[in-house]
Amino acid sequence: MKIEVEKPSIQHIEAARTEKQPDELSDVPAFDKHQEHKLIRKVDLRLLPILGALYSIALIDRTNISNARVAGMDEDLELSVGNRYTTALVVFFIGYFIFEIPSNIILRKVGSANWLSAIAFAWGLVMLGQGFVKDWRSLAVCRAFLGLFESGFFPGCAYLITCWHVRYDVQKRLAAFYLTSVFVGGLANILAYGLMQMEGLGGLRGWQWIFIIEGLLTIVTSIVAWWLIMDFPDKAAEKKFLTPAEATFIQERIEIDRGDAEPDPLTWPKFFNNLKDFKLWVFALMFMSTVMPAYAFAYFTPTILRGMGYSAGASNALSAPPACAAFFTSMAFAWVGDKYRIRAPVIAIQALICLTGLMIVAYHHNDGVRYFGIFLGTTSCQGNIPAILAYQSNNIRMQSKRAVGSGLQIGFGAVGGIIASTVFREQDAPKYVNGLWTTAGLQFFILLMVSGMTVYFITNNRKVDNGTIKKPIEGQPGFKFTL
């Protein structure tokens, strides 16, 4: 259903300018439509590629353990004994969950370039160290530190992107940022296959070279990122990325759209008050439920393919096409969501597609059809990640709440990672039917939650239209929920 809240455009900004007092008019720049589009494109080209590149590396670094496993690490570190592999997966998410919100608070204080590049450099060093571990315990320790340092990157990027764009532009941007990483992450399976061919070089195994080369790539990219990552809109003019007039215009668009262009300090009372909003917990649980299959496919697709009879190299190579396809299908859904200003239908459709794919992988007897099921499951769950991020972003206000909301939401993504790591048990390999059913149950949960939120949003929007609502939604008169 289309919401009757107009997307802020140059006409809206010009109208807003007429309402300002004479002494305020000089602070609001005049841009025509062409200049507006050019400015937004300038922001996108500076903001999205470097964040997408770094998060591509982050996804590769956290999931390449599955590539290393089939490349010989399983035998060398005896990961198949008991729950060793599961332990190495789970410990990543402990620090990842705990430090999401604190990281967003630090990000605002020290600056996005300083913080995001620093934590990327740190996890690059950890990745490099993983190439020299001698037993599974050392691997688990490295994975724990990897989760600690990576914890701040995704919520920081989501927070930063949503602070730059208006509500009905944001899903395409979040999708472009996130799905670029998924696409590159898919190609990383092919890279891992190539690095496996370095077996024996320098006295090192192929799986060690996977960690070493990809760790060095992270370190180099993090150094470059320090020069390229830009800060929040209110600091853009200070960093000389935008002129004062351009920075003011960007903030004016956001102010008209949702009234939170100016940063509000995140205090402890605000922090706990924000946590009382049940919507944040619903969005977080929905995010957990779509991230879980994303991790499951990333960690276990090579193993499932090996169970179909493919070699280790072929299993890694065949893991790439579903992830690459996710970029195109998910961008299409994101375009529809932004164009028609809808969120819930996009989420529900992709959850249903994911359900279909999971059942095919679990029960079909033809391996080719099961591989198609992996395509369906991977593309749809990956597409729902930016969709659910945008769902939350569109329906909350104030930067302090965004900092808490994105940290909580993506922190629950870590819970999804823990579930994926534990329900796909060694004794269920290579079909993992129990794990696939757990994943399917979470897709039903998404459908239930999105249905409930739709009813709640429609009810409150009607109250706004009728003038019967007791308090303005999100504290802003005229604000309506995005369905």
From TrEMBL:
The keyword NAD does not apply. InterPro entries: MFS (IPR011701), MFS_dom (IPR020846), MFS_trans_sf (IPR036259). It is found in: Membrane. Residues 47-463 form the Major facilitator superfamily (MFS) profile domain. The chain crosses the membrane at residues 47-65, 85-107, 114-133, 145-164, 176-195, 207-229, 280-300, 320-337, 344-365, 371-391, 403-424, 436-458. GO terms for molecular function: transmembrane transporter activity. It is a multi-pass membrane protein. Pfam families: MFS_1. It comes from the Eukaryota. Keywords: Membrane, Transmembrane, Transmembrane helix, Transport. Coiled coil: none annotated. One of its GO terms (cellular component) is membrane. PANTHER family: MAJOR FACILITATOR SUPERFAMILY (MFS) PROFILE DOMAIN-CONTAINING PROTEIN, PERMEASE-RELATED. This is MFS general substrate transporter. It comes from Rhizodiscina lignyota.
